[in-house]
Specification:
The protein has helices at about 50-55, 85-95, 100-115, 155-170, and strands spanning about 25-35, 40-50, 65-70, 120-130, 130-140, 145-150. It has about 170 residues and is α+β, with helices and mostly antiparallel strands. It folds into two domains: about 1-75, no CATH class; about 85-165, no CATH class. The strands form two sheets. The protein has a three-stranded antiparallel sheet. A hairpin with an 8-residue loop joins strand 1 (about 25-35) and strand 2. Helix 2 packs antiparallel against helix 3 and helix 3 packs across helix 4. The longest helix is centred in the middle third of the chain and has 16 residues, at about 100-115. The chain is elongated.
Length: about 170
């Protein structure tokens, strides 16, 4: 199993002159060991070409630098628009309550994960029941509880159900 490392995110600004990088602009990125007191394992710094050329090869040879590469700032992407709003997702989730069919139960579980990510559904606790783990949850701002069976899907199964859900709910307009 691969270990995950925490690396500081790109800021979109040059670490040398603090200029904001523009889409399609070339830059040089470095990754170095982060200071011990930092939350991240590694620190990333991006440099515009002018600052990188001024620093020369000395910046790449500094102690602690683990990697250097050249790249371009990506163009901003338009967010996909969906056919459904949050209310329709919630309605769909509620209509699948109590389903016995495994595919629909898996589908409802992935809907619950999506609603949690959107901060609409809040996880309260998990308890074993009838050979399954059952999550007790509530919608933000509501007291009523709902139950979701955790089907213990592996990553591939979650990806497949998520893909199917995306095919149903998303469309380029």
């Amino acid at each position: 199993m691969a270990k995950e490392y925490n690396i500081t995110r790109a800021t979109g600004r040059c670490a040398g002159c603090d200029k904001e990088m523009q889409p399609a602009e070339e830059f040089v990125a470095t990754v170095r060991e982060a200071p011990e007191e930092a939350e991240e394992d590694f620190a990333r710094a991006d440099y515009c070409l002018a600052c990188w050329q001024a620093a020369g090869e000395a910046a790449a040879a500094e102690p602690g630098v683990l990697g250097v590469w050249r790249s371009r700032v990506p163009a901003p992407r338009e967010k996909k628009r969906t056919f459904v709003d949050d209310e329709l997702l919630i309605s769909f989730f509620e209509r699948l309550e109590g389903t016995e069919e495994p595919a629909k139960r898996d589908f409802r579980f992935v809907l619950a994960l999506i609603l949690m990510r959107k901060k609409l559904l809040v996880y309260d606790r998990s308890e074993p029941a009838d050979g399954h783990d059952v999550w007790t949850m509530h919608f933000r701002g509501a007291d009523a509880k709902c139950s979701v069976i955790d089907p213990h899907m592996d990553e591939e199964q979650v990806s497949e159900v998520s893909r199917q859900l995306g095919d149903i709910l998303e469309a380029e307009l």
